[in-house]
Design goal:
Residues 1-17 form the signal peptide. Keywords: Signal. This protein is mainly β. It has one domain: Lipocalin. 7% of the residues lie in helices and 48% in strands. The chain contains one helix and eleven strands, in the order H-E-E-E-E-E-E-E-E-E-E-E. It has one helix at residues 2-11; strands spanning 15-17, 19-22, 41-44, 49-55, 64-73, 79-85, 93-94, 100-104, 108-119, 124-134, 141-146. Strands 1, 7, 8, 9, 10 and 11 form a six-stranded antiparallel β-sheet that branches. The longest helix is centred in the N-terminal third of the chain and has 10 residues, at 2-11.
Length: 149
C-alpha cells in the first residue's frame, strides 16, 4: 500500500483516497446487488475473492459501491466482507464491465475500473479510475480514485 502511494506521488498523478468499510452498513444488503447478477459480480484467485457491484439507488449522486469478499477467513470459514465507497456514500457511476485485474506479488491483487464520484465542495461530478488493492494474507484493502489519463 505504501509502495503504491509513493509510486503515485512520484508520478505526479492526483489521487483521492476512497473509503473501505466493514459490511455492517445497511448498504451491504443482498437486496442491493446490482442486476443482472452474472454481469455485476466477478471472482478472482480461484474463487477466493468475489467482487460485486452494489446499487442502493440512493443517494442518486452516490448509490454505487463495490462489495469485496476475500481472505483471510474467520474461524467459521467465512471470508471478510468490505465495501469500497467515496465521501461517506458510494459513487455516482461505475463501469463494472470494464473491471480489470492483475497481480503484483509485492502488493497483491490490483483491481481497476472507471468510476464517477460527486464532489460536494464544487457540486460537480468527477470521472476517474477506481484502483483498489487486496492483500489476501493480511486482508488489507486500499482504494484510490485516480484522475483519468
Amino acid at each position: 500500500m505504501i509502495r503504491a502511494a509513493l509510486l503515485l506521488l512520484a508520478a505526479g498523478l492526483p489521487a483521492a483516497a476512497q473509503e473501505v468499510q466493514d459490511c455492517d452498513d445497511w448498504a451491504a444488503g443482498a437486496q442491493f446487488l446490482a442486476e443482472p447478477w452474472e454481469e455485476n459480480t466477478r471472482t478472482f484467485a480461484n474463487g477466493a475473492v468475489r467482487v460485486a457491484l452494489i446499487d442502493t439507488g440512493e443517494p442518486a449522486a452516490g448509490g454505487y459501491r463495490i462489495l469485496v469478499l476475500s481472505p483471510p477467513y474467520s474461524q467459521l470459514g467465512d471470508r471478510q466482507c468490505r465495501m469500497v465507497g467515496s465521501g461517506g456514500m458510494g459513487f455516482a457511476g461505475v463501469d463494472f464491465a470494464a473491471l480489470a485485474a492483475r497481480y503484483d506479488p509485492t502488493v497483491g491483487l490490483i483491481l481497476t475500473l472507471p468510476a464517477t464520484r460527486f464532489n460536494g465542495g464544487t457540486g460537480d461530478f468527477e470521472d476517474g479510475i477506481l484502483r483498489f488493492t487486496l492483500n489476501q494474507a493480511t486482508g488489507a484493502i486500499g482504494a484510490m480514485l485516480l484522475q483519468p489519463e
